[in-house]
Amino acid sequence: MKTRVINIEEYKAILTTIGSGFTFKVNGADRKFRPNQRVKLALMLEGNLGVRIGDTLNLTLNSFRNNGTNIVLDIVEEKTGKNRTFTAPKELYLVVKEYALDNKLSTDDKLFPITERAVQKQLKIVCNYLGLENISTHSFRKFYANEIFNNNGQNIELVRALLQHSTIAITQKYLGVSSKEIESAISNHVHIV
């Protein structure tokens, strides 16, 4: 399965469905998918911060800090070992803080004491229910990348920096920008005076 990017409607439908729960059939028997705020928030953070799911699952309330002006997120990326410090939207931090309070988590407790596999399993059930294919947790990081790309003048360097890719070629592949599309864009942009 090649993981694909999700669009905003799919993003909302997946998170809403995870948050509200539903009934589905397995071998003719009704089964319940209970509302799961933990999985919903983990995927929401991935989709809003561009952080890989493994790094998202390692977050604590202490991962977020107020620097006097902004809320800043400090992580060490599990995959690359790179330090990453960036501004996190205050609205998102408030949701995380409320979640931590509701779940009686201390500032050092992991926000999501679950595995990537557990999140993926829940996501698969929801996507099957919604009739969506080729979606994994990584689709939420790709969603973030595509939203940043499309809402910021298709600035691929910005996306590269935010995802901490080493080259623009990796980011192009990530965004699904093919060499053929690049060549077509170049050849269609000729202004000879």
Automatic annotation (TrEMBL):
Domain Tyr recombinase: 1-187
A biological process from GO: DNA recombination
UniProt cross-references to Gene3D superfamilies, sorted A to Z: Intergrase catalytic core
Highest taxon in the source lineage: Bacteria
Keywords: DNA recombination, DNA-binding
DNA-binding as UniProt keyword: yes
GO molecular function: DNA binding
Full protein name: Tyrosine-type recombinase/integrase
